[in-house]
Amino acid sequence: MSRTLCIDTSSGTTVALLDGDRLFTRHHGDRRAHAETLAPMIAELCPTPPDLVVVSTGPAPFTGLRVGIATARVYAAASGIPVAGVSVLEAYARSYFDSHPQATKVTVITDARRREVYWGVYTPAGRNDVRALAGPGVAAPSEVQMRGAYCGAVSLIDAQATDSELAMDTFARIAHSRAERGADQPTTPLYLREPDIHRRS
Asked: Taking a C-beta distance cutoff of 8 angstroms, is the pair 112, 138 a contact?
Protein backbone atom coordinates (compact mmCIF):
# COMPACT_ATOMS: atom_id res chain seq x y z
CA MET A 1 0.00 0.00 0.00
CA SER A 2 1.47 3.34 -1.07
CA ARG A 3 2.22 5.96 1.58
CA THR A 4 2.78 9.56 0.49
CA LEU A 5 3.94 12.42 2.71
CA CYS A 6 2.72 15.86 1.60
CA ILE A 7 4.25 19.12 2.85
CA ASP A 8 2.84 22.61 2.30
CA THR A 9 4.41 25.73 3.83
CA SER A 10 2.80 28.27 1.53
CA SER A 11 0.58 29.52 4.38
CA GLY A 12 1.36 28.25 7.83
CA THR A 13 2.65 24.66 7.97
CA THR A 14 0.60 21.66 6.89
CA VAL A 15 1.78 18.06 6.77
CA ALA A 16 -0.38 15.19 5.52
CA LEU A 17 0.13 11.45 5.17
CA LEU A 18 -1.92 9.67 2.53
CA ASP A 19 -1.86 5.98 3.49
CA GLY A 20 -3.92 4.14 0.90
CA ASP A 21 -7.36 5.76 1.16
CA ARG A 22 -6.72 7.25 4.61
CA LEU A 23 -5.53 10.82 5.05
CA PHE A 24 -3.93 12.08 8.29
CA THR A 25 -3.21 15.80 8.61
CA ARG A 26 -1.42 18.17 10.99
CA HIS A 27 -1.54 21.96 10.67
CA HIS A 28 0.11 24.91 12.41
CA GLY A 29 -1.19 28.32 11.42
CA ASP A 30 1.77 30.50 12.45
CA ARG A 31 3.35 31.83 9.24
CA ARG A 32 6.61 32.57 11.09
CA ALA A 33 7.14 29.17 12.71
CA HIS A 34 7.84 26.86 9.77
CA ALA A 35 11.34 25.92 10.90
CA GLU A 36 10.23 25.16 14.47
CA THR A 37 7.09 23.16 13.63
CA LEU A 38 7.72 21.27 10.40
CA ALA A 39 10.18 18.56 11.52
CA PRO A 40 8.25 17.64 14.72
CA MET A 41 5.02 17.40 12.70
CA ILE A 42 6.66 15.06 10.18
CA ALA A 43 8.08 12.90 12.97
CA GLU A 44 4.68 12.65 14.67
CA LEU A 45 2.69 11.92 11.54
CA CYS A 46 5.20 9.73 9.72
CA PRO A 47 7.57 7.90 12.13
CA THR A 48 8.71 5.55 9.34
CA PRO A 49 9.67 6.75 5.84
CA PRO A 50 6.87 6.85 3.24
CA ASP A 51 7.17 5.81 -0.41
CA LEU A 52 7.13 9.37 -1.76
CA VAL A 53 7.47 12.94 -0.51
CA VAL A 54 5.47 15.65 -2.27
CA VAL A 55 6.21 19.28 -1.44
CA SER A 56 4.40 22.45 -2.38
CA THR A 57 6.54 24.62 -4.64
CA GLY A 58 4.44 27.70 -3.96
CA PRO A 59 4.07 30.39 -4.99
CA ALA A 60 4.60 31.69 -1.49
CA PRO A 61 6.82 34.04 0.52
CA PHE A 62 10.53 33.25 0.46
CA THR A 63 11.25 31.95 3.98
CA GLY A 64 8.34 29.55 4.41
CA LEU A 65 8.75 28.08 0.96
CA ARG A 66 12.50 27.63 1.42
CA VAL A 67 11.98 25.77 4.72
CA GLY A 68 9.39 23.41 3.24
CA ILE A 69 11.34 22.53 0.10
CA ALA A 70 14.69 22.18 1.88
CA THR A 71 13.16 19.92 4.51
CA ALA A 72 11.44 17.76 1.89
CA ARG A 73 14.65 17.37 -0.12
CA VAL A 74 16.77 16.45 2.90
CA TYR A 75 14.16 14.07 4.32
CA ALA A 76 13.76 12.30 0.96
CA ALA A 77 17.51 12.05 0.42
CA ALA A 78 18.13 10.69 3.92
CA SER A 79 15.31 8.16 3.53
CA GLY A 80 16.31 7.12 0.01
CA ILE A 81 12.91 7.93 -1.48
CA PRO A 82 11.84 10.20 -4.36
CA VAL A 83 10.59 13.75 -3.91
CA ALA A 84 8.19 15.59 -6.22
CA GLY A 85 7.10 19.22 -6.42
CA VAL A 86 3.51 20.42 -7.01
CA SER A 87 2.32 24.03 -7.05
CA VAL A 88 -0.19 24.97 -4.36
CA LEU A 89 -2.20 26.71 -7.09
CA GLU A 90 -2.44 23.38 -8.95
CA ALA A 91 -3.59 21.66 -5.76
CA TYR A 92 -6.28 24.30 -5.18
CA ALA A 93 -7.44 23.91 -8.79
CA ARG A 94 -7.65 20.11 -8.52
CA SER A 95 -9.62 20.45 -5.27
CA TYR A 96 -12.01 22.82 -7.04
CA PHE A 97 -12.57 20.50 -10.01
CA ASP A 98 -13.21 17.59 -7.63
CA SER A 99 -16.11 19.48 -6.07
CA HIS A 100 -17.25 21.05 -9.38
CA PRO A 101 -16.99 18.17 -11.88
CA GLN A 102 -18.69 20.12 -14.67
CA ALA A 103 -16.22 23.02 -14.50
CA THR A 104 -13.71 23.39 -17.34
CA LYS A 105 -11.66 26.34 -16.06
CA VAL A 106 -10.84 28.04 -12.78
CA THR A 107 -8.73 30.99 -11.70
CA VAL A 108 -6.93 30.28 -8.43
CA ILE A 109 -5.88 33.16 -6.20
CA THR A 110 -3.86 33.07 -2.96
CA ASP A 111 -2.67 35.85 -0.69
CA ALA A 112 0.76 37.19 -1.66
CA ARG A 113 0.71 39.90 1.04
CA ARG A 114 1.56 43.54 0.23
CA ARG A 115 -2.09 43.70 -0.99
CA GLU A 116 -1.21 41.45 -3.92
CA VAL A 117 -2.27 37.96 -4.98
CA TYR A 118 -0.63 34.97 -6.60
CA TRP A 119 -2.78 33.68 -9.44
CA GLY A 120 -3.04 31.01 -12.11
CA VAL A 121 -5.70 29.75 -14.52
CA TYR A 122 -6.18 25.98 -14.85
CA THR A 123 -8.23 23.34 -16.65
CA PRO A 124 -8.72 19.68 -15.69
CA ALA A 125 -6.27 17.09 -17.03
CA GLY A 126 -7.90 13.76 -16.35
CA ARG A 127 -9.29 12.91 -12.92
CA ASN A 128 -6.14 13.61 -10.92
CA ASP A 129 -4.24 16.45 -12.59
CA VAL A 130 -4.62 19.96 -13.98
CA ARG A 131 -3.06 21.93 -16.82
CA ALA A 132 -2.09 25.60 -16.64
CA LEU A 133 -3.74 27.96 -19.12
CA ALA A 134 -2.12 31.15 -17.76
CA GLY A 135 0.27 32.10 -14.99
CA PRO A 136 1.41 31.62 -12.36
CA GLY A 137 1.96 35.26 -11.58
CA VAL A 138 1.72 37.90 -8.86
CA ALA A 139 -0.28 41.12 -9.18
CA ALA A 140 -2.65 43.51 -7.46
CA PRO A 141 -6.17 42.07 -7.24
CA SER A 142 -7.46 44.70 -9.66
CA GLU A 143 -4.96 43.53 -12.30
CA VAL A 144 -6.10 39.89 -12.23
CA GLN A 145 -8.80 39.29 -14.79
CA MET A 146 -11.56 37.10 -13.38
CA ARG A 147 -13.18 34.94 -16.05
CA GLY A 148 -15.68 32.38 -14.89
CA ALA A 149 -15.21 30.66 -11.55
CA TYR A 150 -12.34 31.34 -9.21
CA CYS A 151 -11.19 29.82 -5.94
CA GLY A 152 -8.38 29.72 -3.41
CA ALA A 153 -7.44 31.79 -0.39
CA VAL A 154 -9.01 34.91 -1.87
CA SER A 155 -9.43 37.25 1.10
CA LEU A 156 -8.11 40.21 -0.94
CA ILE A 157 -10.61 39.76 -3.76
CA ASP A 158 -14.12 41.26 -3.98
CA ALA A 159 -16.98 40.33 -1.68
CA GLN A 160 -18.28 37.64 -4.04
CA ALA A 161 -15.24 35.47 -3.36
CA THR A 162 -14.94 33.00 -0.52
CA ASP A 163 -12.03 30.97 0.75
CA SER A 164 -11.82 27.45 -0.69
CA GLU A 165 -10.63 24.41 1.21
CA LEU A 166 -7.37 22.90 0.05
CA ALA A 167 -7.57 19.10 0.09
CA MET A 168 -4.05 17.93 0.93
CA ASP A 169 -4.46 14.61 -0.85
CA THR A 170 -4.55 16.50 -4.16
CA PHE A 171 -0.77 17.05 -3.89
CA ALA A 172 -0.29 13.27 -3.82
CA ARG A 173 -2.81 12.58 -6.58
CA ILE A 174 -1.21 15.08 -8.94
CA ALA A 175 2.29 13.77 -8.22
CA HIS A 176 1.30 10.13 -8.75
CA SER A 177 -0.54 11.01 -11.97
CA ARG A 178 2.52 12.75 -13.36
CA ALA A 179 4.84 9.96 -12.22
CA GLU A 180 2.73 7.45 -14.15
CA ARG A 181 3.22 9.54 -17.29
CA GLY A 182 6.94 9.95 -16.64
CA ALA A 183 6.58 13.72 -16.30
CA ASP A 184 9.32 15.76 -14.65
CA GLN A 185 8.35 17.04 -11.18
CA PRO A 186 11.02 19.49 -10.04
CA THR A 187 11.00 21.01 -6.57
CA THR A 188 12.09 24.41 -7.88
CA PRO A 189 10.42 27.09 -5.72
CA LEU A 190 7.99 29.58 -7.28
CA TYR A 191 8.95 32.77 -5.48
CA LEU A 192 7.64 35.03 -8.31
CA ARG A 193 9.22 38.12 -6.73
CA GLU A 194 12.38 39.10 -4.92
CA PRO A 195 12.71 38.48 -1.14
CA ASP A 196 12.16 41.36 1.27
CA ILE A 197 15.84 41.43 2.30
CA HIS A 198 18.50 42.26 -0.30
CA ARG A 199 22.30 42.38 -0.13
CA ARG A 200 23.74 45.86 -0.54
CA SER A 201 25.83 46.30 -3.69
From this structure: yes
Alpha-carbon gap, residue 71 to 189, rounded angstroms = 13
Q: Which residues contact 163 (CB under 8 A, 6 or more apart)?
A: 152, 153, 154, 155
Of 155, 149, 153, 148, nearest in space to 165 by CA: 153
The closest alpha carbon to 117, from 152, 84, 91, 86, belongs to 152
Distance of CA 39 to the CA centre of its chain: 18
Q: Which residue has the higher pLDDT, 126 or 114?
A: 126
Cα–Cα distance for residue pair 133/122, rounded to 1 Å: 5
Query: Mean pLDDT lowest for which of 34-38, 99-103, 147-151, 178-182?
Result: 147-151
Cβ-based neighbours of 99, under 8 Å, separated by 6 or more:
none
Closest CA to 150 of 89, 81, 61: 89
